[in-house]
Write a structure and sequence with these properties.
single chain, alpha/beta, Immunoglobulin-like, 2 domains, 13 helices, 23 strands, 29% strand, elongated
Length: 498
Protein backbone atom coordinates (compact mmCIF):
# COMPACT_ATOMS: atom_id res chain seq x y z
CA UNK A 1 0.00 0.00 0.00
CA UNK A 2 1.47 3.35 -1.01
CA UNK A 3 2.11 6.12 1.46
CA UNK A 4 -0.17 9.09 0.79
CA UNK A 5 1.69 12.37 0.62
CA UNK A 6 -0.72 14.87 2.04
CA UNK A 7 0.32 18.05 3.80
CA UNK A 8 -2.65 19.12 5.81
CA UNK A 9 -2.76 21.45 8.75
CA UNK A 10 -6.10 22.48 10.03
CA UNK A 11 -8.25 23.40 12.95
CA UNK A 12 -11.31 21.26 13.23
CA UNK A 13 -14.40 23.38 12.77
CA UNK A 14 -16.92 24.22 15.42
CA UNK A 15 -19.59 21.71 16.12
CA UNK A 16 -22.68 22.61 18.19
CA UNK A 17 -24.59 20.23 20.41
CA UNK A 18 -27.79 21.12 22.29
CA UNK A 19 -28.33 19.67 25.77
CA UNK A 20 -31.19 20.00 28.26
CA UNK A 21 -30.68 20.51 32.03
CA UNK A 22 -29.48 23.15 34.57
CA UNK A 23 -26.70 25.70 34.22
CA UNK A 24 -23.55 25.99 36.35
CA UNK A 25 -21.38 29.09 36.32
CA UNK A 26 -18.31 27.20 37.50
CA UNK A 27 -16.90 25.83 34.26
CA UNK A 28 -14.29 23.75 36.04
CA UNK A 29 -16.96 21.45 37.46
CA UNK A 30 -17.67 19.91 34.09
CA UNK A 31 -15.32 17.58 32.21
CA UNK A 32 -14.94 16.04 28.80
CA UNK A 33 -14.81 12.31 29.47
CA UNK A 34 -12.58 10.61 26.90
CA UNK A 35 -9.82 8.02 26.80
CA UNK A 36 -6.54 9.94 26.89
CA UNK A 37 -4.71 7.47 24.63
CA UNK A 38 -5.90 5.82 21.42
CA UNK A 39 -3.92 3.46 19.19
CA UNK A 40 -4.40 2.34 15.62
CA UNK A 41 -2.59 0.14 13.13
CA UNK A 42 -0.55 1.41 10.20
CA UNK A 43 -3.33 1.04 7.59
CA UNK A 44 -5.32 3.88 6.06
CA UNK A 45 -8.46 3.84 8.16
CA UNK A 46 -11.05 5.66 10.21
CA UNK A 47 -10.25 6.11 13.88
CA UNK A 48 -13.14 6.86 16.23
CA UNK A 49 -12.65 8.84 19.43
CA UNK A 50 -15.72 8.60 21.62
CA UNK A 51 -16.44 11.17 24.30
CA UNK A 52 -19.14 12.28 26.73
CA UNK A 53 -19.73 15.59 28.50
CA UNK A 54 -20.24 15.55 32.25
CA UNK A 55 -22.61 17.87 34.05
CA UNK A 56 -26.16 18.94 33.29
CA UNK A 57 -26.64 22.16 31.30
CA UNK A 58 -29.54 24.49 31.72
CA UNK A 59 -32.53 24.21 29.52
CA UNK A 60 -31.87 25.81 26.15
CA UNK A 61 -28.15 26.18 26.74
CA UNK A 62 -26.00 25.22 23.77
CA UNK A 63 -22.59 23.68 24.37
CA UNK A 64 -20.01 24.23 21.66
CA UNK A 65 -17.51 21.42 21.07
CA UNK A 66 -14.26 22.05 19.18
CA UNK A 67 -11.17 19.99 18.45
CA UNK A 68 -7.85 20.78 16.83
CA UNK A 69 -4.78 18.98 15.55
CA UNK A 70 -1.86 19.92 13.33
CA UNK A 71 -0.88 16.37 12.28
CA UNK A 72 -0.65 16.29 8.50
CA UNK A 73 -1.36 12.51 8.36
CA UNK A 74 -4.86 13.06 9.77
CA UNK A 75 -6.67 13.98 6.59
CA UNK A 76 -10.33 14.48 7.54
CA UNK A 77 -12.78 14.65 10.41
CA UNK A 78 -16.45 13.72 10.66
CA UNK A 79 -18.53 15.31 13.45
CA UNK A 80 -21.90 14.13 12.30
CA UNK A 81 -22.32 11.67 15.17
CA UNK A 82 -22.79 13.16 18.61
CA UNK A 83 -20.21 11.91 21.09
CA UNK A 84 -17.80 10.66 18.41
CA UNK A 85 -14.89 12.21 16.55
CA UNK A 86 -14.09 10.24 13.38
CA UNK A 87 -10.59 10.78 12.05
CA UNK A 88 -9.33 9.55 8.70
CA UNK A 89 -5.64 8.67 8.88
CA UNK A 90 -3.14 7.88 6.14
CA UNK A 91 -1.19 4.66 5.72
CA UNK A 92 1.99 4.85 7.77
CA UNK A 93 4.93 3.45 5.85
CA UNK A 94 7.45 4.77 8.34
CA UNK A 95 8.12 4.76 12.05
CA UNK A 96 5.54 4.92 14.81
CA UNK A 97 4.01 8.38 15.03
CA UNK A 98 1.77 10.30 17.40
CA UNK A 99 -0.61 13.22 17.26
CA UNK A 100 -2.48 15.19 19.89
CA UNK A 101 -6.18 15.92 19.51
CA UNK A 102 -7.34 18.77 21.77
CA UNK A 103 -11.04 18.82 22.56
CA UNK A 104 -12.85 21.79 24.08
CA UNK A 105 -16.44 22.31 25.14
CA UNK A 106 -18.21 25.33 26.58
CA UNK A 107 -18.32 25.04 30.35
CA UNK A 108 -15.89 22.11 30.39
CA UNK A 109 -12.22 21.66 31.07
CA UNK A 110 -10.20 20.91 27.96
CA UNK A 111 -9.19 17.32 27.17
CA UNK A 112 -6.32 15.98 25.13
CA UNK A 113 -6.20 12.66 23.32
CA UNK A 114 -2.92 11.17 22.22
CA UNK A 115 -3.33 9.18 19.01
CA UNK A 116 -0.59 6.64 18.26
CA UNK A 117 -0.33 5.06 14.83
CA UNK A 118 1.96 2.06 14.50
CA UNK A 119 4.53 1.94 11.75
CA UNK A 120 4.35 -0.65 8.97
CA UNK A 121 6.48 -3.68 9.90
CA UNK A 122 9.36 -5.02 7.90
CA UNK A 123 9.63 -8.70 6.99
CA UNK A 124 9.26 -10.69 10.18
CA UNK A 125 11.63 -13.15 11.78
CA UNK A 126 8.66 -15.30 12.76
CA UNK A 127 5.00 -15.11 11.78
CA UNK A 128 2.55 -17.19 13.80
CA UNK A 129 -0.80 -17.91 12.17
CA UNK A 130 -3.87 -18.99 14.12
CA UNK A 131 -6.44 -20.87 12.08
CA UNK A 132 -9.66 -21.13 14.09
CA UNK A 133 -12.12 -23.64 12.68
CA UNK A 134 -15.85 -23.23 13.28
CA UNK A 135 -17.94 -21.07 15.59
CA UNK A 136 -19.17 -23.40 18.36
CA UNK A 137 -16.01 -22.74 20.39
CA UNK A 138 -16.07 -18.97 19.79
CA UNK A 139 -16.03 -17.98 23.46
CA UNK A 140 -12.95 -20.12 23.97
CA UNK A 141 -11.35 -18.67 20.84
CA UNK A 142 -11.95 -15.22 22.35
CA UNK A 143 -10.10 -16.36 25.43
CA UNK A 144 -7.30 -17.78 23.28
CA UNK A 145 -6.80 -14.39 21.63
CA UNK A 146 -7.00 -12.61 24.98
CA UNK A 147 -4.25 -14.91 26.25
CA UNK A 148 -2.20 -14.15 23.14
CA UNK A 149 -2.65 -10.42 23.81
CA UNK A 150 -1.30 -10.89 27.35
CA UNK A 151 1.84 -12.49 25.95
CA UNK A 152 2.18 -9.77 23.30
CA UNK A 153 1.89 -7.05 25.97
CA UNK A 154 4.85 -8.71 27.70
CA UNK A 155 6.92 -8.01 24.59
CA UNK A 156 7.16 -11.41 22.89
CA UNK A 157 6.96 -9.92 19.40
CA UNK A 158 10.23 -8.07 19.84
CA UNK A 159 11.17 -5.89 16.90
CA UNK A 160 9.32 -7.43 13.98
CA UNK A 161 7.50 -10.68 14.79
CA UNK A 162 3.82 -11.01 13.93
CA UNK A 163 0.66 -12.85 14.98
CA UNK A 164 -2.24 -13.23 12.52
CA UNK A 165 -5.49 -15.14 12.78
CA UNK A 166 -8.32 -16.53 10.66
CA UNK A 167 -11.79 -16.70 12.25
CA UNK A 168 -15.23 -17.57 11.08
CA UNK A 169 -18.01 -15.09 11.77
CA UNK A 170 -20.62 -17.61 10.74
CA UNK A 171 -21.14 -20.70 8.65
CA UNK A 172 -20.27 -18.93 5.40
CA UNK A 173 -18.24 -15.86 6.36
CA UNK A 174 -14.85 -15.28 7.96
CA UNK A 175 -12.20 -12.64 8.46
CA UNK A 176 -8.44 -12.35 8.86
CA UNK A 177 -6.89 -10.08 11.46
CA UNK A 178 -3.60 -9.28 13.16
CA UNK A 179 -2.60 -8.60 16.76
CA UNK A 180 -0.18 -5.64 16.73
CA UNK A 181 1.79 -4.35 19.70
CA UNK A 182 1.77 -0.65 20.58
CA UNK A 183 4.95 -0.05 22.61
CA UNK A 184 3.96 3.50 23.56
CA UNK A 185 0.73 2.57 25.29
CA UNK A 186 1.79 -1.04 26.01
CA UNK A 187 -1.40 -2.26 24.40
CA UNK A 188 -2.49 -4.57 21.60
CA UNK A 189 -4.23 -3.23 18.53
CA UNK A 190 -6.44 -5.66 16.62
CA UNK A 191 -6.02 -4.93 12.93
CA UNK A 192 -8.57 -6.24 10.43
CA UNK A 193 -6.91 -7.36 7.19
CA UNK A 194 -9.86 -8.85 5.28
CA UNK A 195 -13.37 -8.69 6.73
CA UNK A 196 -15.25 -10.17 3.79
CA UNK A 197 -14.03 -13.74 3.29
CA UNK A 198 -16.74 -15.96 1.85
CA UNK A 199 -16.69 -19.69 2.65
CA UNK A 200 -18.22 -21.29 -0.41
CA UNK A 201 -20.02 -24.59 -0.29
CA UNK A 202 -20.73 -26.84 2.66
CA UNK A 203 -17.13 -27.46 3.69
CA UNK A 204 -13.82 -25.69 4.14
CA UNK A 205 -11.98 -27.27 1.23
CA UNK A 206 -8.23 -27.86 0.78
CA UNK A 207 -8.22 -25.01 -1.73
CA UNK A 208 -9.79 -22.70 0.86
CA UNK A 209 -7.32 -23.74 3.57
CA UNK A 210 -4.44 -23.12 1.19
CA UNK A 211 -5.85 -19.76 0.13
CA UNK A 212 -6.32 -18.55 3.72
CA UNK A 213 -2.80 -19.59 4.77
CA UNK A 214 -1.39 -17.92 1.66
CA UNK A 215 -3.25 -14.70 2.47
CA UNK A 216 -1.83 -14.58 5.99
CA UNK A 217 1.71 -15.39 4.88
CA UNK A 218 1.56 -12.81 2.08
CA UNK A 219 0.36 -10.18 4.54
CA UNK A 220 3.15 -10.99 7.00
CA UNK A 221 6.18 -12.36 5.13
CA UNK A 222 8.71 -13.96 7.45
CA UNK A 223 11.80 -16.11 7.70
CA UNK A 224 9.83 -18.68 9.69
CA UNK A 225 6.14 -19.65 9.92
CA UNK A 226 4.22 -21.45 12.62
CA UNK A 227 0.59 -22.58 12.40
CA UNK A 228 -1.88 -23.11 15.24
CA UNK A 229 -4.94 -25.12 14.23
CA UNK A 230 -7.66 -24.60 16.80
CA UNK A 231 -11.09 -26.20 16.91
CA UNK A 232 -12.64 -29.62 17.04
CA UNK A 233 -10.39 -32.55 16.18
CA UNK A 234 -10.81 -36.25 15.52
CA UNK A 235 -7.44 -37.60 14.44
CA UNK A 236 -7.52 -39.46 11.15
CA UNK A 237 -11.28 -40.13 11.17
CA UNK A 238 -12.82 -38.94 7.92
CA UNK A 239 -16.26 -37.64 7.07
CA UNK A 240 -16.88 -40.87 5.17
CA UNK A 241 -16.03 -42.90 8.26
CA UNK A 242 -18.76 -41.14 10.19
CA UNK A 243 -21.33 -42.57 7.81
CA UNK A 244 -20.66 -45.98 9.32
CA UNK A 245 -22.02 -45.02 12.73
CA UNK A 246 -25.32 -46.83 12.17
CA UNK A 247 -23.39 -50.01 11.45
CA UNK A 248 -21.31 -49.45 14.57
CA UNK A 249 -24.43 -49.02 16.65
CA UNK A 250 -25.89 -52.24 15.28
CA UNK A 251 -22.65 -54.18 15.73
CA UNK A 252 -21.77 -53.01 19.22
CA UNK A 253 -25.12 -52.01 20.66
CA UNK A 254 -24.13 -48.41 21.38
CA UNK A 255 -25.57 -45.03 20.50
CA UNK A 256 -25.65 -44.27 16.77
CA UNK A 257 -24.00 -40.90 17.31
CA UNK A 258 -20.72 -41.82 18.96
CA UNK A 259 -19.43 -38.29 18.63
CA UNK A 260 -22.24 -36.55 20.47
CA UNK A 261 -20.87 -35.49 23.87
CA UNK A 262 -22.83 -36.92 26.76
CA UNK A 263 -25.39 -34.68 28.44
CA UNK A 264 -23.78 -32.80 31.32
CA UNK A 265 -20.22 -33.36 30.14
CA UNK A 266 -17.59 -30.63 30.29
CA UNK A 267 -16.91 -28.97 26.93
CA UNK A 268 -13.90 -30.34 25.08
CA UNK A 269 -12.58 -29.64 21.59
CA UNK A 270 -13.54 -33.06 20.32
CA UNK A 271 -15.19 -33.57 17.01
CA UNK A 272 -16.41 -30.87 14.69
CA UNK A 273 -19.12 -28.90 13.02
CA UNK A 274 -20.67 -30.10 9.82
CA UNK A 275 -19.18 -27.48 7.54
CA UNK A 276 -15.69 -27.47 9.06
CA UNK A 277 -14.87 -31.17 9.16
CA UNK A 278 -11.54 -31.05 7.39
CA UNK A 279 -10.01 -34.48 6.83
CA UNK A 280 -6.33 -34.68 7.74
CA UNK A 281 -5.41 -35.49 4.13
CA UNK A 282 -7.30 -32.38 3.01
CA UNK A 283 -5.48 -30.28 5.57
CA UNK A 284 -2.14 -31.56 4.30
CA UNK A 285 -3.22 -30.84 0.75
CA UNK A 286 -4.29 -27.31 1.71
CA UNK A 287 -0.95 -26.54 3.35
CA UNK A 288 0.87 -27.89 0.30
CA UNK A 289 -1.28 -25.77 -1.99
CA UNK A 290 -0.42 -22.66 0.02
CA UNK A 291 3.25 -23.02 -0.84
CA UNK A 292 4.10 -21.75 2.65
CA UNK A 293 6.94 -23.47 4.49
CA UNK A 294 5.34 -24.26 7.85
CA UNK A 295 8.02 -25.05 10.41
CA UNK A 296 5.62 -26.39 13.04
CA UNK A 297 1.94 -27.07 13.58
CA UNK A 298 0.39 -26.82 17.03
CA UNK A 299 -2.97 -28.63 17.22
CA UNK A 300 -5.28 -27.02 19.75
CA UNK A 301 -7.76 -29.78 18.94
CA UNK A 302 -8.55 -33.22 20.32
CA UNK A 303 -6.98 -36.57 19.38
CA UNK A 304 -4.46 -35.15 16.94
CA UNK A 305 -1.34 -36.95 18.24
CA UNK A 306 -2.56 -39.95 16.33
CA UNK A 307 0.00 -41.66 14.13
CA UNK A 308 -2.44 -42.12 11.26
CA UNK A 309 -3.00 -38.34 11.29
CA UNK A 310 0.54 -37.12 12.00
CA UNK A 311 1.96 -39.35 9.27
CA UNK A 312 -0.13 -37.46 6.71
CA UNK A 313 1.62 -34.21 7.71
CA UNK A 314 5.17 -35.52 7.30
CA UNK A 315 5.78 -33.59 4.06
CA UNK A 316 4.12 -30.27 4.94
CA UNK A 317 5.69 -29.39 8.30
CA UNK A 318 8.80 -30.16 10.32
CA UNK A 319 7.25 -30.58 13.76
CA UNK A 320 3.86 -31.22 15.32
CA UNK A 321 2.61 -30.49 18.85
CA UNK A 322 -0.57 -32.38 19.69
CA UNK A 323 -2.53 -34.26 22.32
CA UNK A 324 -3.53 -37.96 22.19
CA UNK A 325 -6.77 -37.33 24.05
CA UNK A 326 -9.31 -34.56 24.30
CA UNK A 327 -8.38 -30.95 24.94
CA UNK A 328 -10.61 -28.98 27.26
CA UNK A 329 -12.61 -26.15 25.72
CA UNK A 330 -10.17 -23.72 27.34
CA UNK A 331 -7.46 -24.98 24.99
CA UNK A 332 -3.80 -24.05 25.24
CA UNK A 333 -2.78 -21.34 27.73
CA UNK A 334 -1.28 -19.00 25.16
CA UNK A 335 -0.08 -16.47 27.73
CA UNK A 336 2.16 -19.32 28.89
CA UNK A 337 2.81 -20.98 25.49
CA UNK A 338 3.55 -18.13 23.08
CA UNK A 339 6.77 -16.96 24.76
CA UNK A 340 8.28 -20.36 23.91
CA UNK A 341 7.31 -19.93 20.26
CA UNK A 342 9.10 -16.56 19.99
CA UNK A 343 12.58 -17.29 21.28
CA UNK A 344 15.68 -15.24 20.39
CA UNK A 345 13.55 -12.41 18.98
CA UNK A 346 11.66 -14.87 16.77
CA UNK A 347 14.74 -16.60 15.37
CA UNK A 348 13.82 -19.91 17.02
CA UNK A 349 11.05 -21.72 18.89
CA UNK A 350 11.27 -23.94 21.95
CA UNK A 351 8.59 -26.45 20.99
CA UNK A 352 9.35 -28.72 23.93
CA UNK A 353 8.87 -25.77 26.28
CA UNK A 354 5.61 -24.88 24.51
CA UNK A 355 4.28 -28.42 25.01
CA UNK A 356 5.41 -28.45 28.62
CA UNK A 357 3.59 -25.16 29.27
CA UNK A 358 0.32 -26.87 28.28
CA UNK A 359 0.97 -29.80 30.60
CA UNK A 360 2.01 -27.60 33.53
CA UNK A 361 -0.98 -25.32 33.13
CA UNK A 362 -3.46 -28.18 33.45
CA UNK A 363 -1.42 -29.75 36.20
CA UNK A 364 -0.94 -26.64 38.32
CA UNK A 365 -3.37 -23.87 37.34
CA UNK A 366 -6.55 -25.28 35.80
CA UNK A 367 -9.09 -25.38 38.60
CA UNK A 368 -11.69 -27.85 37.30
CA UNK A 369 -11.37 -31.50 38.29
CA UNK A 370 -12.23 -32.36 34.67
CA UNK A 371 -8.93 -31.89 32.88
CA UNK A 372 -6.61 -33.23 30.21
CA UNK A 373 -2.90 -32.50 30.18
CA UNK A 374 -1.34 -35.02 27.81
CA UNK A 375 0.77 -33.67 24.97
CA UNK A 376 3.79 -34.55 22.84
CA UNK A 377 6.13 -33.12 20.20
CA UNK A 378 6.87 -35.00 16.96
CA UNK A 379 9.74 -34.74 14.50
CA UNK A 380 8.15 -35.31 11.11
CA UNK A 381 11.51 -36.13 9.52
CA UNK A 382 11.50 -39.36 11.55
CA UNK A 383 8.04 -40.58 10.55
CA UNK A 384 9.02 -42.48 7.40
CA UNK A 385 11.62 -44.41 9.39
CA UNK A 386 9.00 -45.01 12.09
CA UNK A 387 6.68 -46.53 9.48
CA UNK A 388 9.52 -48.81 8.32
CA UNK A 389 10.24 -49.90 11.90
CA UNK A 390 6.54 -50.51 12.51
CA UNK A 391 6.37 -52.53 9.29
CA UNK A 392 9.07 -54.84 10.60
CA UNK A 393 7.15 -55.35 13.85
CA UNK A 394 3.89 -56.02 12.05
CA UNK A 395 5.51 -58.56 9.72
CA UNK A 396 5.76 -61.06 12.60
CA UNK A 397 3.10 -59.64 14.91
CA UNK A 398 0.61 -61.79 16.78
CA UNK A 399 -3.10 -61.12 16.81
CA UNK A 400 -3.51 -63.16 19.98
CA UNK A 401 -3.97 -60.38 22.49
CA UNK A 402 -6.75 -58.75 24.49
CA UNK A 403 -7.37 -55.22 23.19
CA UNK A 404 -9.42 -54.39 26.29
CA UNK A 405 -6.20 -54.46 28.32
CA UNK A 406 -4.59 -51.70 26.27
CA UNK A 407 -4.37 -48.03 27.25
CA UNK A 408 -7.01 -45.96 25.48
CA UNK A 409 -7.52 -42.20 25.30
CA UNK A 410 -11.27 -41.61 24.95
CA UNK A 411 -14.37 -42.75 26.79
CA UNK A 412 -16.15 -44.21 23.79
CA UNK A 413 -17.98 -47.54 24.20
CA UNK A 414 -16.07 -48.65 21.11
CA UNK A 415 -12.49 -47.51 21.58
CA UNK A 416 -10.71 -45.82 18.68
CA UNK A 417 -7.42 -44.42 19.99
CA UNK A 418 -4.95 -46.81 21.62
CA UNK A 419 -1.39 -46.23 22.81
CA UNK A 420 0.90 -46.95 19.87
CA UNK A 421 3.93 -47.89 21.93
CA UNK A 422 2.03 -50.30 24.14
CA UNK A 423 0.30 -51.92 21.18
CA UNK A 424 3.66 -52.55 19.50
CA UNK A 425 5.03 -54.05 22.71
CA UNK A 426 1.96 -56.29 22.93
CA UNK A 427 1.90 -57.67 19.38
CA UNK A 428 5.65 -57.91 18.69
CA UNK A 429 7.25 -61.37 18.52
CA UNK A 430 10.59 -60.31 17.01
CA UNK A 431 12.68 -58.68 19.76
CA UNK A 432 15.18 -57.09 17.37
CA UNK A 433 12.37 -55.51 15.35
CA UNK A 434 10.71 -54.33 18.55
CA UNK A 435 13.93 -52.73 19.83
CA UNK A 436 14.44 -50.96 16.52
CA UNK A 437 10.88 -49.65 16.75
CA UNK A 438 11.48 -48.43 20.32
CA UNK A 439 14.59 -46.58 19.25
CA UNK A 440 12.86 -44.97 16.27
CA UNK A 441 9.80 -44.02 18.33
CA UNK A 442 12.08 -42.17 20.75
CA UNK A 443 13.50 -40.22 17.80
CA UNK A 444 10.06 -39.43 16.37
CA UNK A 445 8.49 -38.40 19.70
CA UNK A 446 11.05 -35.89 20.96
CA UNK A 447 9.10 -34.91 24.10
CA UNK A 448 6.02 -36.15 25.90
CA UNK A 449 4.11 -35.10 28.98
CA UNK A 450 1.02 -36.49 30.67
CA UNK A 451 -1.13 -36.26 33.74
CA UNK A 452 -2.12 -39.48 35.45
CA UNK A 453 -5.61 -39.27 33.94
CA UNK A 454 -7.62 -37.74 31.13
CA UNK A 455 -11.17 -36.46 30.82
CA UNK A 456 -13.56 -37.61 28.11
CA UNK A 457 -16.92 -36.09 27.18
CA UNK A 458 -18.04 -39.29 25.43
CA UNK A 459 -19.76 -42.50 26.43
CA UNK A 460 -19.81 -42.61 30.19
CA UNK A 461 -18.23 -39.20 30.49
CA UNK A 462 -15.67 -38.59 33.20
CA UNK A 463 -12.05 -39.16 34.14
CA UNK A 464 -10.03 -42.20 33.05
CA UNK A 465 -6.58 -43.30 34.21
CA UNK A 466 -3.34 -43.09 32.20
CA UNK A 467 -0.52 -45.46 33.03
CA UNK A 468 2.43 -43.06 32.88
CA UNK A 469 4.85 -45.96 32.39
CA UNK A 470 2.92 -47.01 29.27
CA UNK A 471 2.24 -43.56 27.81
CA UNK A 472 4.16 -43.17 24.52
CA UNK A 473 2.68 -39.81 23.48
CA UNK A 474 1.11 -41.15 20.30
CA UNK A 475 -1.96 -43.25 19.48
CA UNK A 476 -3.07 -45.68 16.80
CA UNK A 477 -6.38 -47.14 15.69
CA UNK A 478 -4.81 -50.46 14.69
CA UNK A 479 -6.59 -52.46 17.46
CA UNK A 480 -9.93 -50.69 16.90
CA UNK A 481 -13.00 -52.29 15.35
CA UNK A 482 -14.77 -48.95 14.93
CA UNK A 483 -13.93 -47.94 11.35
CA UNK A 484 -12.10 -50.88 9.76
CA UNK A 485 -12.90 -50.17 6.11
CA UNK A 486 -11.86 -46.53 6.34
CA UNK A 487 -8.82 -47.21 8.52
CA UNK A 488 -7.18 -49.49 5.93
CA UNK A 489 -7.44 -46.61 3.50
CA UNK A 490 -5.14 -44.41 5.61
CA UNK A 491 -1.66 -43.68 4.35
CA UNK A 492 -0.19 -45.05 7.58
CA UNK A 493 -1.89 -48.40 6.99
CA UNK A 494 -0.65 -48.48 3.40
CA UNK A 495 2.91 -47.71 4.51
CA UNK A 496 2.96 -50.35 7.25
CA UNK A 497 0.73 -53.22 6.11
CA UNK A 498 0.66 -53.18 2.32
Amino acid sequence: MRYLHHIVAFAISIFSLAFVGCNNDDESLYKIIVEPQVSCSYDSQQVNIEYTLSGTPAEGVVYTVTAATTADWITSVDYSETGNIALEVEFNNGELRTATIEISATGHAKAKVKLTQLGAPTDASHTLMYYFFGTSLSRFFDQNLDDAKKAIKDGILGENNRVLFFRQKGRSTAYIGELCYDPVNKSVVERIIDDEIIIEGALITPEAVGRHITMMAKEAPADRYGLILAGHGHGWITRDALNDEADIASKFGCTPNMWQPAAGAEITRAFGENNVQVDITELAEGIELSGVDIEYILFDACFMSNIEAIYDLRNVTDYVIASPCEIMGRGFPYHRTLPFLFQANGASSDLVGAAESYYKYYRDEYTSSARCGSVAVYDCAELEALAEAMRAVVATATDDYNASMLQTYEGQPVHIFYDLGQWAETVATDYAALQAFRDQLSRAVIAKYTLSSFYSAYGVYGTYPIDEDIYSGVTTSAPSDAYPAEWIDTNWYKAVWE
